[in-house]
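Q: Sequence in, structure out?
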Amino acid sequence: MRDEGPARMVMPDHARIEDELEQLRAAIEDAQEEAAALVAERNALRAELARRTLQLREAEDQPRQAEAERTAARDAPLPNHHSALKEKTQHDATGQELRVAIEELQVLAQELEESNAALSHANAALEERVAARTAELATLNQRLRDSEERLRLAQRYAGAGTWDWDIKGGHLSWSREYFELYGLDPDRVVPSYGAWVASVAPEDRAATEAALQDCLRRRDPDFRVEYRIRHPQRGERWLAGRGRLFCDERGDPARLIGLNIDITERKQAELAIAEVNAGLRREVEQEAKAREAAQARLFQTLKLEALGQLTGGVAHDFNNLLSVITNGVGLLRRGADPARRDRLLDAMDQAAHRGADLTRRLLSFARRQALRPEPLDVRAWLEDMRELLSRALRGDIAIEICVPDDLWWARVDPGELELAVLNLGVNARDAMPHGGRLRLSAENVELDALTDPDQLGGSFIRLSVQDTGTGMGPEVLARAFEPFFSTKDVGQGTGLGLAQVYGFARQSGGTARVSSRPGEGATVTLLLPRAAPTVGPEARAPEPASATPESAPLRLLLVEDDDAVAELTAETLRHLGHTVSRVASGPAALRALADGLRVDLVLTDVIMTGGQDGLDLAQRLVAEHPALPVLLYSGYGGAPARVAAAGLPLLRKPYSLEELRRALATACEAAARRSDSAARPG
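A: Exactly. Output:
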């Protein structure tokens, strides 16, 4: 950066000196033209003076000639009377002519005097103007020499050299400083385009020449380029070329003039700074990696802490559920009476469903539950929810629905949304022990990611559930979405209701928020993403699913590595009327099919040991046997996302007999569609 000062000084000085030179040249040309005009005027006056002098001489000769004639007449012998009369007449005529000639001579003399005076005045003025122009020309010449000397000094001390390229004439001139800048000998190197290209370092030659040709092609008046040269004594040097392109009246390049400046020190500083920046960047990247590792360790610690809290709550609830089941099984084995047997079975069934619901809530909060989002008409859906909520709430709670007619459709999993709103309704019911009002409202909102507290941006539906209950204080409000946090008595709540709502909303692409004050009720707001704009109220709602008809008996191949689960699943399938063959792994299933086992459907668990899980097996079967139905089932939270990505039907554990029957029918329909698609030409 130290040579930037001289570079900035040379460029304006050079431009100013060039302007002064142009002005001096123009002034000299004007003086020369004016002097030529004065000389022509002087010559014209001299010619007129010569002509008038000749006329004066001719006029002076006429009286002398007349006098000579009169003298000759007096000396001649006297004529007769007639002759005397004739001579008298001639004498009178001659006298008259003489008087006229004298008058003309006087006029001519006066004009001649006036012309002489004008000529003298013009000569004096011309001499004064010529003297003034001569002095001015001398001054301009001195200024020109001074400017050229300053330019040479500026170029020498700033490390700059000028050049002038006559593009049409093919002539190129370099200043003395240009030769010194490149380390060239003026006696051995002739300025030319080829000599300039040869002086550029080989690694920069192509790019530099391309920059010049691009300037000429685009008629860019400003030419800028930077390149390296190899100086014979100073080694590698960086030069910056700056030029001005002039075009002719047709717009074709005619002349390019400019200068080159040595910018080696600046370039070295830039390279040093770039190297320092690269080093700093590497250090920052290393620091960032170290910070990420520290954050990962911190997150792992927090996860372990949260896992400890979570497992405690889960273990407490599952121990209660398992106690119901294990005690019920023990009592059933002792042969209880039918009424007691039915009560035990109901309690065990209820415990199993509570366990499944608890698992689903945990997966939703952890965002491991696979959602099935689809366009949903929230306005019509809320009307359907009114009836469902009316059965879940007490009669002293009034339900209000408030939605606009132009409410957008939401993209959300209807089943999970129903569960979330039911959870909010139950919480509201418990917060209104003496009755009250539950108000469900929805509206369209546009969010800005820059101002939204959760950085959400775009179109959303704001679904609010508001009650008139006891409300929450700040300390409770701050922990409302925390899992296993509950204000209810022990055994009356899991603390996963609002946590499930929050997890579902976040997993759906939105969020959940709560506001409340003690004694003023609470409002839980769900922000749900808007469905595609093409989906609107005029879109046809999905037709309700019809009852699943009884399926024909099937030959099933069950792939399950857990013996207890396999035994219970096979017994359930046989109860539905199907024939079951069981293998313990995916490779075993492939060997059985290769050995000729004929089956109508393959039912496989997703998570299995042995290196090949159920999804790998299903994908291979679909590829090799498109017409063979394949149904996967799993209780693992991460499996649904993988299965959904593969486009295969999935049955979630735990499941009922009816859910199993419907899943088998769905798998058969999917296989039929695959078979039709494979058989269709094109």
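Residues 1-12, 364-368, 489-496, 535-549 have pLDDT under 50 and may be disordered.
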